[in-house]
């Protein structure tokens, strides 16, 4: 503007326009839009709730956003209520949020599936609000009926029913979504497909568990997890794995059905499972390019397969005769051959490869053969946020000498001391005492819960600090499954859990878990709140995350210090939780200074949802 006579007049006008624009943007963000209801990032504005008959103060304070967020309790400030996230965020997964990737302008390689991997929000971008259920939400159908049907209002997404209508993934029938048991490769039912695989391997009575020798499976690109759901009848536990991709909500459907499942992808990071965890990995037209990056994705499967483990592959490359499929088959066969895999069976459209039992084949390969063996200092069990490696993981001396994992068949495997106990310096006596201690503790938990639950009330359970998996082991006779979570900053005992025939994942509770909201009926929090506070992470954030994961009417078993229990009690009203029972741990217990607090999450709906229903 230099040298122009009207510059002095225009400058104030420009400044005024800018200020006005900022004010308008602030007003929009703060008050939101009537079309979008309440903004999800509002921190002080509270939507009306239903279902809290004893909480009249919330309704009274609805008009005063400053007066209801915190209250002085004499020893600090504690929330009286949290804001409710916008209804658009009823399925928010904080560390798998595509909007966050766009907002933070993360530069990710889409060809490597990095956009489907975990990218957690920094503290200033976290949603400090309660995730609302969808309009009309109902308490989920109980297991085992839930394997075959769920309420449509709980997961109001029917596009897969239309997209996969010729494959019998799912069918919409009135108020419910039914699951006939079909899949991309097994239109006529997972049960027949599973029996066919057992027959291919010559297992007795066409049962795929082979007398209990096969127990833990990994299903990659699982769809709605019918394969894993039907394997449960054979006492096989399957980790059904899929990303939050174009088939959105497939893992949400799986968990709503009561089938073990986890949101994850074969991208650039290792899967959150230790080495030698699964007896069989399965891919049924999972649309994965196994040849990319020197076979790094197949090598990741190799890492998590046990000695002698199987990879069942049902895909056109295994049977089609066109030029491209034949090329892929030749290259894939050459790759697995160099990995020392052999064909255990091949029939029609399915091939089953088997991993070697010992290191002999690896050591006999010609010098310079690709892929190489991993360096001796590479830890195959380090997984949380660790990049995959394009190399072959050799077996330990124990596995090499025993020609396998040395595991007992299921169900004896559950209570037999795992061979890898020695990796932690744990004795058989320590293992047996831990198993018995948690058996007694679980008996106490169920006595305390008994006035509130029936035999089918609880199905999906998460143990937030699983240690050796003895909490889950104590639940064997109940019709439940347990996601055993091992914190990433402690001993990586997850391999002991898999060796017991159970399953789980490594995770940091300073971040959100990779699951949809409302997917677990019961959370077990043993010392986990104390642990994250020691790490300098937010206990409030963890409580909000627990609320996100927990189903309405679900339970949380908190076993922690008295000070932690007192802290949680201050948050009960804000979280719409109800204290069911408080009990001091038995004096004979190893952690007799701990207190047990059992809380139940109330079922509530936003006033907006109620108006939608009306």
From TrEMBL:
EC number in record: 2.1.1.-
Transmembrane domains' residue ranges: 12-31
Biological processes, Gene Ontology terms: methylation
Main subcellular location of this protein, as a coarse class: Golgi
Record key words, sorted: Glycoprotein, Golgi apparatus, Membrane, Methyltransferase, Signal-anchor, Transferase, Transmembrane, Transmembrane helix
Membrane topology: Single-pass type II membrane protein
UniProt cross-references to Pfam families, sorted A to Z: Methyltransf_29
Record's subcellular location: Golgi apparatus membrane; Membrane
One Gene Ontology molecular-function label: methyltransferase activity
Leading EC class: transferase
Keyword check for Cell inner membrane: no
GO annotation, cellular component aspect: endosome; Golgi membrane; trans-Golgi network
Family: Belongs to the methyltransferase superfamily.
The protein's name in its UniProt record: Methyltransferase
Lineage: Eukaryota, Viridiplantae, Streptophyta, Embryophyta, Tracheophyta
């Amino acid at each position: 503007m230099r040298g122009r006579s009207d510059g002095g007049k225009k400058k104030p006008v420009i400044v005024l326009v800018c200020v006005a624009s900022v004010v308008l943007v602030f007003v929009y963000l703060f008050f939101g839009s009537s079309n979008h209801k309440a903004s999800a990032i509002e921190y002080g504005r509270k939507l009306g709730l239903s279902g809290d008959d004893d909480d009249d103060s919330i309704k009274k304070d609805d008009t005063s956003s400053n007066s209801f967020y915190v209250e002085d309790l004499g020893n600090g400030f504690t929330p009286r209520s949290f804001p409710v996230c916008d209804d658009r965020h009823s399925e928010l997964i904080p560390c798998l949020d595509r909007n966050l990737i766009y907002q933070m302008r993360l530069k990710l390689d889409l060809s490597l599936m990095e956009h489907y991997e975990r990218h957690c929000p920094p503290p200033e971008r976290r949603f400090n609000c309660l995730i609302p259920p969808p309009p009309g939400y109902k308490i989920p159908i109980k297991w085992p009926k839930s394997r075959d049907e769920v309420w449509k209002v709980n997961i109001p997404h029917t596009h897969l029913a239309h997209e996969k209508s010729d494959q019998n993934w799912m069918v919409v029938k009135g108020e419910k979504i039914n699951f006939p048991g079909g899949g991309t490769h097994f239109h006529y039912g997972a049960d027949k497909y599973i029996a066919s695989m057992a027959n291919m391997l010559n297992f007795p009575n066409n049962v795929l568990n082979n007398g209990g020798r096969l127990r833990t499976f990994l299903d990659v690109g699982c769809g709605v997890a019918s394969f894993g759901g039907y394997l449960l009848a054979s006492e096989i536990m399957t980790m059904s794995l899929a990303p939050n991709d174009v088939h959105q909500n497939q893992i949400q459907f799986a968990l709503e059905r009561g089938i073990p499942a986890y949101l994850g992808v074969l991208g650039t990071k290792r899967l959150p499972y230790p080495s030698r965890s699964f007896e069989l990995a399965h891919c049924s037209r999972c649309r994965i390019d196994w040849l990319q990056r020197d076979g790094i994705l197949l090598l990741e499967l190799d890492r998590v397969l046990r000695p002698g483990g199987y990879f069942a592959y049902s895909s056109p490359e295994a049977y089609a005769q066109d030029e491209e499929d034949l090329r892929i088959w030749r290259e894939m066969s050459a790759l697995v051959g160099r990995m020392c895999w052999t064909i255990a069976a091949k029939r029609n459209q399915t091939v089953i490869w088997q991993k070697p039992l010992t290191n002999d084949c690896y050591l006999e390969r010609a010098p310079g053969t690709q892929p190489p063996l991993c360096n001796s200092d590479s830890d195959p069990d380090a997984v949380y946020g660790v990049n995959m490696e394009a190399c072959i993981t050799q077996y330990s001396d124990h596995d090499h000498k025993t020609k396998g994992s040395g595991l007992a068949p299921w169900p004896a495997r559950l209570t037999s001391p795992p061979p890898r106990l020695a990796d932690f310096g744990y004795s058989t006596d320590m293992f047996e005492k831990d198993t018995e201690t948690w058996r007694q503790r679980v008996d106490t938990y169920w006595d305390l819960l008994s006035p509130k639950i029936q035999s089918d009330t609880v199905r999906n359970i998460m143990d937030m600090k699983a240690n050796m998996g003895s909490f889950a082991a104590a639940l064997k006779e109940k019709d439940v499954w347990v996601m055993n979570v091992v914190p990433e900053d402690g001993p990586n005992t997850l391999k002991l859990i898999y060796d017991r025939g159970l399953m789980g994942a490594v995770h940091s509770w300073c971040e959100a878990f990779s699951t949809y909201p409302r997917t677990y009926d019961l959370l077990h929090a043993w010392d986990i709140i104390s642990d994250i506070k020691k790490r300098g992470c937010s206990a409030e954030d963890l409580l909000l995350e627990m609320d996100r994961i927990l189903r309405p009417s679900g339970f949380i078993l908190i076993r922690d210090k008295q000070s932690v229990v007192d802290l949680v009690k201050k948050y009960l009203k804000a979280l719409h939780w109800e204290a069911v029972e408080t009990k001091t741990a038995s004096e004979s217990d190893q952690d007799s200074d701990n207190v047990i607090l059992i809380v139940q999450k109330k079922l509530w709906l936003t006033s907006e949802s109620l108006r939608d229903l009306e």
